[in-house]
Amino acid sequence: MTSKKEEIRQRLIAARHPRRATAVLSSDPDHNPIILEDCSACRGTGHRCDETSTAYVLDVCAACAGQGVTGRLVRYFQNDSPEVRNADVANGWLTCPWCDRRFALHDSAVWSGLRHITCGGRIELTPPQDIDR
Asked: Which domain holds residue 118?
């Protein structure tokens, strides 16, 4: 059982810091903001699906009491401030120098403007070179 003081502290932390799903990466200069850690048991959903002998039961996650977060603060990416690697841009596409995945720069689901969201690597873009013919 948690104390009233601990409950208030957890609510204040939740009000100041976003969850992973709602974090704005550009809010931090390194595109690695501090967020609330998702519960590892339910992966941030607040629910667990358990199998019984006759059925599947969707129940509130016991580990996080249905909150979906642990209450701890972590960085969005585990690799905090890695070195910057260069990558060549060709027609709005580039291959990540960290994980070798190819992606479009206009896709905000995989590119924050500084980091490749899939692997967290920091990338400095090299503009395309004009080819003399």
From this structure: 84-126
